[in-house]
Amino acid sequence: MSSSAVGAEAPDLVCQLDNVQGMVDALTAVRWKRHQDAVVELSEHGVVLIVEDTGCLQAKVYLQRELFVRYEYSAEGRPRFGLSLGLFVDSLNTFSVPGHSNTIEIRYPGPDMQLLLKSVDSPDACIYAEIRTRIPETISWDYNFEPAGSTPLSLTVKSAALKEAIDDLEWPGSSIQITVQPVPPSVTFRGEGHGDLQIDFMYYVNTDLLIAFHCDRQVSYRYKYKFLRATTSNIPSSVIKDNRGSKLTIGRGGMLKVQHLVSVARPSIPHAHIDSAGYQQPSRIAYIEFFVKPEEDEDTINDS
């Protein structure tokens, strides 16, 4: 077989990951409905998975190449394909055994453009899965996130507290008004339904909940509750357990960005090799971002 023929058959991507559960946690964080489609984009820098809902909510999971123990990228450009997010997560779950190191190989494309998954470190059996992919029907909408002025309007809240607050604000079919103000430095979540419910995070009162706060003017926007809840409904238990923070940033026009960090570090295994430093590599973090468009509201306080 000629070298050109071999090159033509080379897959776009062959990578290996030694913490399947970490990837499951990251992908589950953006699975807010039972049946969801996702778009996967490959590049030399890593893998990005994108999920959207009615043009008002977009989520991205960034899996940088440093997360993988092997990452061989051969494609030109950035191949994109669609798949079922639920099927992808369920397939990955079959490779995850609690308390054990699980290394899988991910390969794309297969002979029929499938996404191929295979266990590579089990001496007893090889688990193998094929996931059908398709050409994405639409192009992801341009969220066009821009800072609202020279000073970013951002705050970092403990993830558990943020999830609890949003869960408590549930009113069927309602909206949630988020107000950020510099004096006193605070963020307010207010829901309306059969009654009113307001939750305040005061920056100087409880720094254990509101970790960081940057605001030089008051802004206030409303967001559809179901979209806001999707940003926290499936925060992985590992994030809550690690007592991590989630960052909220309000951009121009009220676009809300919510960011979570999920560890994809290899779990501690008895008798497993541990590097001399004994620390988790900072690069072994999956970055998750949600973008939520605000509702049109005459009472909105503009940030122009």
Automatic annotation (TrEMBL):
Gene Ontology CC annotation, any one: checkpoint clamp complex
Signal peptide (UniProt feature, chain positions): none
Top-rank taxon, per record: Eukaryota
Family matches, as Pfam families: Rad1
Entry-linked CDD domains: PCNA
Gene3D superfamilies in the cross-refs: 3.70.10.10
Family statement: Belongs to the rad1 family.
Protein name: Cell cycle checkpoint protein RAD1
The species this protein was found in: Liquidambar formosana
